[in-house]
Amino acid sequence: MAKDISFRDFTLGEKARIAGLVVRMGKRGIADNGTGNVDLSDLQKRVEHIEKTAERRKNSK
Fold it and tell me: Which of 8, 37, 47, 50 is 20 to 30 A removed from 15 (C-alpha atoms)?
């Protein structure tokens, strides 16, 4: 998470989107074949994009 933002800086929709992405990350982990080589980079990038949006909104106030 970005340094300048906290969980309260996210909108309700952003919190829901992040929660959904975390659930999808968990599902991928469960579906793993035991190697531990699960690619989560696409979901992590989505979360980072949401964080950047929240940080930009906070800094514009």
Answer: 37
Tally Cβ neighbours within 10 Å of residue 55.
17
Compute φ and ψ for 5, nearest 5 degrees.
-120, 155
Q: Cβ(51)–Cβ(17) under 8 Å?
A: no
pLDDT digits (tens, 9 = 90+) for 10-48: 999 999 999 999 999 999 989 888 888 899 999 999 999
pLDDT at position 49 is 97
Distance between CA 56 and CA 11 in Å, rounded?
13
Looking up tokens 């800094």 gives: 59
* Residue 24, phi then psi, degrees to nearest 5: -65, -35
